[in-house]
Amino acid sequence: MSHFKIFFTIIKFYSVILNFLSKLFYTNYKNTKIVQKSNNFIIVDKAYDLKINSNNKNELTLQTYMKKKLPLLASNHLHHEYYFVHRLDYSTSGLMCIPIHKEACQVASRAIQERQCKKYYVALVRGYLSSNLLDLNFPIGRDDSVTEIEKMCVQNNGRSARTLIVTLESGLFDCYPTTKVLVRPITGRRHQIRVHCSNIGHTIVGDYTYSNKKDVKPARMYLHALRLVIPNQIENINVHTCDPFTENEVRLWNPLFRRYSVAEGLEKIDAFLK
């Protein structure tokens, strides 16, 4: 074999390896995508099992995804390079707002702090709910009985927390009684939806932490931030994704009875709060 053939064989080999690594790198972001972009805000649909950021620069996070997609917007003046004004749990998928500049960050942060922001989630929970609409008010605090991870719980001296839940569908997930629900947390406590669902005996499907490490079979935790509304003086945000937990998207989910569509559920929650 000539030197040229050896050289081109080596180049081709490394090209295949680099292509494979590139696809592997992208796959680890799963279905994360930018769904809306303006001069003020970026709206991202974050994949499940993906951290927002990390001090380990080699770890794949939403931060490194943003650096890959929009490197010119990264700021060396910010510890994690982008304005992350709110968060989603590692296991939760769905919509996040990332302001592009300082003024946008300030108005979005103010809307969130003053509870003008509206967040709606869709989830699959274990069992059948006793009511089509639940208004849960349970204070939440840190669970000091657990030391290896940060876990929250309902406790009398915790911070006030309120969650509205509307039943959308009842059915079976992998032959187990399950309900699809639409959820709006009125407050924004850590793990609030997961804690409140667990407290009423309807843990989110696939929630390893709040099922006491028992719910290990599902491929993910079935909690998704479906709609995000952030009114502000610069540019009002009102974005939603498609429902990712339909029977067409989730092979093990078999809805048997539909109470409300997602649109009807949104209307019912908003009407309840008027």
Automatic annotation (TrEMBL):
CDD domains: PseudoU_synth_RluA_like. SUPFAM superfamilies: Pseudouridine synthase (SSF55120). InterPro entries: PsdUridine_synth_cat_dom_sf (IPR020103), PsdUridine_synth_RsuA/RluA (IPR006145), RluA_PseudoU_synthase (IPR050188). Residues 40-198 form the Pseudouridine synthase RsuA/RluA-like domain. It comes from the Eukaryota. GO terms for biological process: enzyme-directed rRNA pseudouridine synthesis. It holds the Pfam family PseudoU_synth_2. GO terms for molecular function: pseudouridine synthase activity; RNA binding. Belongs to the pseudouridine synthase RluA family. This is Pseudouridine synthase RsuA/RluA-like domain-containing protein. It comes from Zophobas morio.
